[in-house]
Design goal:
Blueprint lengths: L4 H16 L14 E8 L2 E7 L4 E7 L13 E6 L2 E10 L3 E9 L8 H16 L18 H6 L1 E2 L2 E2 L2
Antiparallel strand pairs: 1-2, 2-3, 3-6, 4-5, 5-6, 7-8
């Protein structure tokens, strides 16, 4: 599948931020690069997961005529997604315009490499926008590891990531 123009623009802007504003900062994960995963239209807005060497965010960008309005830069709003309510913070960048982002992971040191970050971002998009149907029968106990709830809330090993 070919990337959307919005995903390409978001990638280019954050690659520039990486080169110009973030260069040399110790928070950067050297094995990661900027990527956009799972781009889709949602209620008249563009949605996708933005991976950078310093964070992973769910990003929503309003389309022309969209009912989604990020609000003034720095303002917060709670958005109801199919998987539940999530807090987003409004921002704006030249070449993107106003958008809102929900921090999923920051910093990114828990990811071994780009492939691990990409796989996590794909799982996040699926979990956020394709909620589980009600179970038809009782389910066996889940194997140890990261639960869906922990992944979406940024919680690993019982500690909430901020």
């Amino acid at each position: 599948m070919q990337p959307s123009p919005t995903a390409e623009r978001l990638t280019a802007v954050f690659e520039r931020i990486h080169r110009e504003r973030m260069a040399g900062l110790p928070i950067l994960h050297p094995a990661l690069s900027v990527a956009v995963v799972g781009a889709r239209e949602w209620r008249g807005a563009w949605a996708g997961v933005l991976i950078t060497p310093w964070c992973m965010n769910l990003v929503l960008i309003p389309a022309p005529g969209s009912g989604f309005v990020p609000g003034p830069t720095g303002s917060k709003q709670v958005l109801e997604l199919p998987a539940g309510a999530f807090e987003l913070i409004a921002s704006e960048e030249p070449d993107i315009g106003p958008f809102a982002a929900c921090s999923l992971f920051s910093p990114m040191q828990q990811f071994a490499d780009q492939a691990a970050a990409l796989a996590t971002a794909e799982a996040v998009m699926q979990q956020l926008f394709e909620p589980d149907p009600p179970p038809a029968a009782p389910q066996p106990a889940a194997a140890p590891g990261i639960s869906r709830r922990d992944l979406l809330r940024g919680t690993l090993s019982g500690q909430r990531k901020r």
